[in-house]
Amino acid sequence: MDAGRAMSDESIFREVDEAIRQDQLKVLLRKYGLLVLGGAVAIVAGVGGYKFWNYWTAQQASDAGGRFVGAVTLLRDGKNAEAIEVFKSLADEGPSGYRRLARFRLAAVYAKDGKIAEAINIYDNLAADSGLDKIQQSFAVIQAATLRLDDAPFDEMNKRLKALAVTGNPWRHSARELLGLSAYRAGNRAVAERYFNVMLGDQQTPANMRRRAEMMLSLLVQSTGAPAPAGN
Fold first, then answer.
1. How far is 209 from 186, CA to CA, in rounded Å?
2. Which of 88, 181, 192, 227 is deepest in the core (most CB within 10 A)?
3. Residue 172 burial by CB count (10 A; 0-12/13-18/19+): exposed, middle or buried?
4. What is the mean pLDDT of the chain?
5. In 10 A of CB 156, how many CB atoms?
6. Per residue in 205-218, pLDDT tens?
7. Whole-number Å distance between alpha carbons of 152 and 161
8. Which of 171, 181, 158, 160 is nearest to 205 (CA)?
9. Is residue 71 a contact partner of residue 83, using CB atoms and an 8 Å limit?
């Protein structure tokens, strides 16, 4: 009897223990199963989000490219005001590459329309844009300096261009020509001659720039009758 009761008690305890384990398992599944499921959903969502982001980025670039080409067409048709609005929109809201490209075109349109201050401001901002590579930044520097040539004192032009005029810089030819012209305009004959002579001494100076340098040196010689000594 006692043995039977003991066996019965043991069975009850086992059943209770099993029930407790099952309840605990249900609790664990409810608690952590959602986390596992959530993790799986997050992975799927992440992959889907990445694919969507790539699609959206490509779509944005495609749309921006179409708008940019459309603006260029407007320029060709003489509709500058409409083209400017498109370039402004792209410069403010387009994908990063088209934002910068639109700013370059916008500055060029402003310069052509005689809005020199606006064009210079855009070029100066592009020159300071760390998102551009050095070639693009330097191009912006050259463009701004070209627009400032008629009005800027030589010291300003030298500050803008001196770093580009050094041997090996891909923009050195343009920088040297602008510095020579600025010095000539300022009446600093020695500095002007120095830059034009440097241009002639550089075997890689483009032919058209070389001809202009020769012409400027001839003008300098004719104005005084003799070459001036090199100066600073």
1. 20
2. 192
3. buried
4. 78
5. 13
6. 999 999 999 999 99
7. 12
8. 171
9. yes
